[in-house]
Write a structure and sequence with these properties.
The chain is mainly α. The chain is about 60% helix and about 0% strand. The chain is elongated and about 50 Å long.
Amino acid sequence: MGAPRRTIEEMVVKKLLKDVVPRWSDRVIVTALRKIAWDNSLVDEMVDMYEKLSSYIEGHSHTDEAMGAPPEIKDLELGITNVEALVKRARIERQKTKRLAASSGLAN
């Protein structure tokens, strides 16, 4: 479950925040703020999936009962499928943002 969870973390940086604050960096790219197109419903889905995946991660104090049961292969497959769907949706949102910025003269 760690890999799909890390994918969501990367989505926050690349798809949602458009690399304004690069991961593992102290640098903030203020001039890139125009690229951000915040979508609350996408954020809600990302947070929900992230929390669900986190419940399976070792080091997090969740009992098997709290998770429903120990994870099975089908749980991992479903997690991957759901994260892939989120990535696809984030790409669509990013393309919409680029088109909007280009049509309004805000593109770099």
